[in-house]
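Inputs:
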Amino acid sequence: MASFQQFDVEYEMKVDLSQWHPIASSSDLPLRHVYQGQLWGRELAVWRADDGHINVWENRCLHRGVRLSIGLNEGSELRCLYHGWRYANRTAGCTYIPAHPADAPARTICNNTYQCVEVHGLVWSAIAPESSFEGQGVLEGLEPLVLRPIPIAAPLHLVQKLAADYPFGTLTNRDDTSLTLQYGQAKLQLFLQPVDAGKTIMRGLLTPAPVDSVAALRHHNATMTALRDEIELAATRLDPPTAINVKFAPVAKGLARMPDIDNAGPKVELRAKVARKWQVAEQVMAFRLEALSGQFPTFQPGAHIDVNLPNGMSRQYSLTNGPGETDHYTIGVKHDIASRGGSTCLHDDVQEGDVLAISAPHNNFPLRRDAVKTILIAGGIGITPLLSMAKTLKAQELPFELHIFAQSKDDLAFPNILHNLGASTISHTGLTPQATCDVIAGVLANYTPAQHVYICGPGAMLEATRELATKAAWPDEAVHFEYFKNTHEIAFNTTFEIALSRSALTLQVPAGKTILQVLRDNGIEAPSSCEQGACGTCLMTVIEGEPDHQDVYLSTTERAANQKIIACVSRSKSNRLVLDM
Amino acid sequence: MKLYDYELSGNCYKVRLFLSILNLSFDTQTVDFYPGQEHKSEALLRLNPLGQLPIFEDADQVLCGSDVILSHLAANYDKSGLWYSPKQRLDIDKWIRFADEITATASAARLHDTFFYDLDIATARAGAERLFRNLDEHLWFSEQRGYDWLVPTRFPTLADITCFPYVALSEEGGVSRADYPAIRRWCDRIKRIHGFIPMPGIFSTSKAA
């Protein structure tokens, strides 16, 4: 046994945040559990999603700072126990804020995450890695036995010195945070996880895995426990260690300053590879888009992306993904005979392996998750955003019905997904317009408070459904809809003035130019997407004046209130329009 | 059936939890444990001379102490016969003793921190850590053998019910469970028992996959 005196010296802890360390055993991460970990003083919330992906996040909800390790692992989202904010698997982006049920949370609301790798029964992470994980001496091709980890109330340097006493063959290798011991053919690797200034976890891998694994686990558990007691006794003779100074990363520069002035139109900030292209219904192709590296940004159900096509066009497509799926986006594209070229280009020209520029997801069709019942009504390819909604509702076990109207069975897109959604999905095929209206009238017949309906489909069906909902006493705010496109004729022949209240700027909008164009001509950033009054991305708040609405995004109530305007198509009936920007 | 109950008491919660799991309805009489010290009042001392909660009335019987009440409920109302089965009784009784030690340490630390009891907090917390190390080790090896519960059977027993509350409330006494991952997983499993109810400081968890 080593004497204590030789370690009883002043010691300053070397904090090296760049190294990878094991932070958990694989068996610490069963499904629907959140493991509480720590590395170099930083607390971690570690959870495995139902798809197997392991998330290592800073253990702090960015809303009120409550530990996420007491949150709820719901399979594809982690829910904070305090105010119910939901964060997506993989990206840690916020997907839902219960206090704002009708709004899509900003994409910038995202928890801090750490990289992680699962190898040989251990989960590895690093606070600020300078290189990717390289195995750290873990044996290739062998499945080691993962020993029970033992937390030790002692600083790393003391554990590192005394661990050399571990009674197992001879010490063949050691560095600051690991030791290798050899006993005949058997090799024991001990990893020392620097938890905090005064705490270290000893983790062991034994290769080859012995025949009687339980006996080996018991033996090493007893050995490590005895060693722990010895080290902890030695630690009582040391001065208490100085705490590790934990600095949290400041807000990213891009978020802390005003964005650059940008004259460009819809933004295409991401590159995506077409990983798979396949037919999912008559005239409908699905595209699985994958990020060239890492994950795609967080999205919420109802979101769409702008896809830039090889022919120079930009088109909007809804994401069909379920919650937490940000390793890929899947869109469904119907070949439109009357296409201006978008769907033809995707169907005929874009092939697997091609790289497309896409925007981050916009969500102007957000799903409330506080309805007593949600009704989803899809016409044809209008199913796409509703698939994402249905998957979310199903994952959260919220009551919903999905009604799909299509010409024939062959026109029902994504049949596998529909099948998995189960009994809540009802398809109606081959109905005449009148018969369709009769079915929808039946579906909408018994409105009770806190029900919500979401409709996406062709213009005529949408208008008819909205009328039926109004007749059945559905309030406007319970009826949510998304048009494919704006088929109304748009007049650009008026002239008016816009005043930007917060910028103290007055601009003239001449005939032939839109509000959006005038803003951009003057160097003012304004987000947009479809630029035809359908998607709602360029929604602005009106303080004064009477808008001339030409969009298909706002509801009847919203139009009448004159407090909102879709800047890409709508104009002004009054000479002056004061906008809150 | 009537429970003399204090909402923040882990021992009263054991009884409420087991009553809920057995799907039994009962009346409660709230006792002002803190700050009123009503459990030391003459009326309640007549029911339980030890001056402790919970107290439980069933027909004309008066039962005192959570373990006595739990075994009474198991003997009379557990149709499955699994919660306190004669086959496991000795093993379960061992954990009932263990739970007493948890009460003497983890619960004592909580009484100090949240109810301002005058006691040696360092000793209480160190005692709790020692017990939690044992408990975590036991549960870790049980998991290795394919068992979810304290007693190696396919079903939870009174051992789990009686050990759980003051473990799950330990943070209120300044004892973190971060070093005890097997205990944290076991707590999740208990929260998924059909009939589980929360209490202040013990929250529900998500549904199983």
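The beta strands of chain B are 2-5, 27-30, 55-58, 61-64. Flag for discussion at group meeting.
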